[in-house]
Amino acid sequence: MSMRYVMDSNLDDPKRIVVVDGLKKFLADTYTLYLTTHNFHWNVTGPHFNSLHQMFMVQYNELWLAVDLIAERLLTLGSFAPGSYKQFAQLTSLPDVPDSPPEAMEMVSLLMKGNQLAARTARCVVPDAEEIGDQATSDLLVSRIAVHEKVAWMLRATLAG
């Protein structure tokens, strides 16, 4: 991990590196999910167009704000924030979307799975953040887990209809 500057805190440096690396993966997942959600917002068609178009817009706007919070937390911890497609592709646990837009309900399914994966990535970092007493990172991640789980539930409910 390349640190930008020395962090003046009582956070354990070796474990802080583990937390930073996990945050970078979570940032990549969040950005990838943002991009996928925005893509689906643009390309959704069918009888549920209006409701899905609106739902996806709410979701991608929320994700856009989250990307900034996660990146700023990385900077606060003394790291850089990855920001290229290449870096995100290497770090994310989310699969890329098909070249051709899928059907509307497949979009919903892919976003549900993406939110579940993002929550899983965040959940993996929480114990390390808590171990070093990094409550700010832990709080950010726990908040994001709640958002991703709620969105996944809403998308699952949409599929059930």
UniProtKB/TrEMBL annotation:
<dbReference type="InterPro" id="IPR012347">
    <property type="entry name" value="Ferritin-like"/>
</dbReference>
<feature type="domain" description="Ferritin/DPS">
    <location>
        <begin position="21"/>
        <end position="159"/>
    </location>
</feature>
<dbReference type="GO" id="GO:0016722">
    <property type="term" value="F:oxidoreductase activity, acting on metal ions"/>
</dbReference>
<comment type="similarity">
    <text>Belongs to the Dps family.</text>
</comment>
<dbReference type="InterPro" id="IPR023188">
    <property type="entry name" value="DPS_DNA-bd_CS"/>
</dbReference>
<dbReference type="InterPro" id="IPR009078">
    <property type="entry name" value="Ferritin-like_SF"/>
</dbReference>
<dbReference type="InterPro" id="IPR008331">
    <property type="entry name" value="Ferritin_DPS_dom"/>
</dbReference>
<dbReference type="GO" id="GO:0008199">
    <property type="term" value="F:ferric iron binding"/>
</dbReference>
<dbReference type="InterPro" id="IPR002177">
    <property type="entry name" value="DPS_DNA-bd"/>
</dbReference>
<protein>
    <submittedName>
        <fullName>Ferritin and Dps</fullName>
    </submittedName>
</protein>
<dbReference type="Pfam" id="PF00210">
    <property type="entry name" value="Ferritin"/>
</dbReference>
